[in-house]
Amino acid sequence: AGPAAAAAAAALWTEVNRCGQNGDFARALKSVNKILQISKDDVTALQCKVVCLIQNGNFKEALGVINTHTKVLTSDIIAFEKAYCEYRLNRIENALKTIQSASQQTDKLKELYGQVLYRLERYDDCLATYRDLIRNSQDEYEEERKTNLSAVVAAQSTWEKVMPEDLGLREATYELCYNSACALIGQGKLNEAMKKLQKAEELCRQSLSEDSDVTEEDIEAELAIIHGQMAYIMQLQGRTEDALQLYNQIIKLKPTDVGLLAVIANNIITINKDQNVFDSKKKVKLTNAEGVEHKLSKKQLQAIEFNKALLAMYTNQADQCRKLSASLQSQSPEHLLPVLIQAAQLCREKQHAKAVGLLQDFADQHPANAAEIKLTMAQLKIAQGSVTKACMILRSIEELQHKPGMVSALVTMYSHEEDIDSAIEVFTQAIQWYQQFQARTNYGCCVFQPKSPVHLSLIREAANFKLKHGRKKEAISDLEELWKQNPKDVHTLAQLISAYSLVDPEKAKVLSKHLPSSDTMSLKVDVDALENSHGATYVRKKAGKLTGDNQQKEQGQGDVKKKKKKKKGKLPKNYDPKVTPDPERWLPMRERSYYRGRKKGKKKDQVGKGTQGSTTAGSSELDASRTASSPPTSPRPGSAAAVSATSNVIPPRHQKPAGAPATKKKQQQKKKKGAKGGW
């Protein structure tokens, strides 16, 4: 049996070797199992079985074989395979222990050690490991190690805000370009990062198009992560519509990377905010895919959980919002967002007092974050109308008391409440803080030190505020301090004189001597430009060029005012200088004494009367015999006889010019035509 078994084992080993070279690990595994039936504790056969299982993706089964045969497969023999199985099963801490317990650190273990450190987000140790590998190894995997090294630098820049050092890597591959772009995003250099991503896209297309087996769909799937980062840059730049369009294009491709899909879905939710909630609820399902927690960093996962809590608040899921925010707070007790989300939810439920109490408790427990919490508390108080209490909360933030923005806010709020004394007290405390700060920085120095621009600005604002509210005596000391700092400041001196004129006129007279004379003051004003400006009410006409005689004449009579020539008024066409103008010509027709009203309907009554072709008024007018025998009872307007008639004639301003009715009729016709054309 011994020689036969040995021969069978030899044949099986030959089969295992052949299958291994061909990459047929499933068939090789069958041969290895037959060998183990002959010799169950064969170390080489057990190692081969573990390798075949790993190649087939059966990591759990491979780890089971290793743990079952611990006496045979010691850590020195199988350390790499065991650590790799644990790494692929996302047991990162166990993989780290296995690597560290190995007696000999091979290059394979160091490579895996770098990957484990990256997953644990220990970027400094990871960077040192890859540097050591690149320095001490030369093989076909050097390009991959450089890519991993650039990925570590990008992660440091993005998550730890560390300024990346120049590694001197030649960006010959799209992976290196992509990692370099990520590092630039971490530094806030978005335009440069976009250019790097465009270069990475070009390199990716070039490298994949060389392979005839790669389809256009495969290229788009590989470019998805690059396009996702481009969309993120657009979102940071405020181009949300472009970013949203690119995000949706990537989702339509249905990439297999669950981490990429989760990040894109989260970013779409941040764009939607409290709008388009239905779409956000659909997208949030992509963030719950299996394996997402192993693909993303801790900060990415935390941001997704924050957005889930906010979405629950926007969709009025109060219990879900409280549950998620409480879970986040237990994971990160010092983080602000969970508490702020809880407070926002309480405010939506009209429980403002409870929200303020929650924030106050957090501020007491975490003094380092008290400033931001107190700002939120003040905002809630203002929303409730308690402006004075909001001011008290703001003044309790010691590190912000002296800031110009805080001083301005407090003064505005106190002014709104008409509490001028408290507003002046805010100015005084801020000015005193800067005085003490300058005294500390200039300790032991006897040379006069000018005040800082912020300090002087506060003094000036305090003086202006006091002058505005009638506190002249209090403003004088501030103005004197400003003038002392800059004696050439005419504006401050003028304010000081104005304030003293109401309190001490004699002092104002003394100070007025320091004002510069009118001769020394030059006002560089372009009069022509000022008069010709858009807001000028009077535009001076440009004078023409004068001859020598006219110039001398004007110089001699420079004090004489020029008389404006009056334009001749236009006279009516039928004006007769012999006739006295109508004294009532400036009054409306209805208000004149001789107005008798208009005769309406005269022509309408004559329309349609009589037989067809007959005439009424026109026939009598054309009859010469009747015209001669019966003279008109009144002069016809516009005729020559009417103008040269008796003293009862209508004045020329009152008469209608000859041909006026026809002209009026033509104008009416033109208006009708115009109206018709307009419609």
Automatic annotation (TrEMBL):
Entry keywords, A to Z: Coiled coil, Cytoplasm, Endoplasmic reticulum, Repeat, Ribonucleoprotein, Signal recognition particle, TPR repeat
Gene of this entry: Srp72
Subcellular location: Cytoplasm; Endoplasmic reticulum
InterPro entries: Signal_recog_part_SRP72_RNA-bd (IPR013699), SRP72 (IPR026270), SRP72_TPR-like (IPR031545), TPR-like_helical_dom_sf (IPR011990), TPR_rpt (IPR019734)
Bias (Basic and acidic residues): 573-594
Gene3D superfamilies, per database record: Tetratricopeptide repeat domain
Biased composition annotated in UniProt, kind: Basic residues: 561-571, 663-679
GO process annotations (BP): SRP-dependent cotranslational protein targeting to membrane
Low complexity bias spans: 625-642
Family label: Belongs to the SRP72 family.
SMART domains assigned to the protein according to its UniProt record, in alphabetical order: TPR
Chain ranges of the Signal recognition particle SRP72 subunit RNA-binding domain: 541-597
GO molecular function terms listed in the Swiss-Prot or TrEMBL record: 7S RNA binding; ribosome binding
Region Disordered, residue ranges: 540-679
Coiled coil: 92-147
Gene Ontology CC terms: endoplasmic reticulum; signal recognition particle, endoplasmic reticulum targeting
Taxonomic classification: Eukaryota, Metazoa, Chordata, Craniata, Vertebrata
Domain of life, source organism: Eukaryota
Main location: cytoplasm
TPR-type repeats, residues: 224-257
Protein name, entry field: Signal recognition particle subunit SRP72
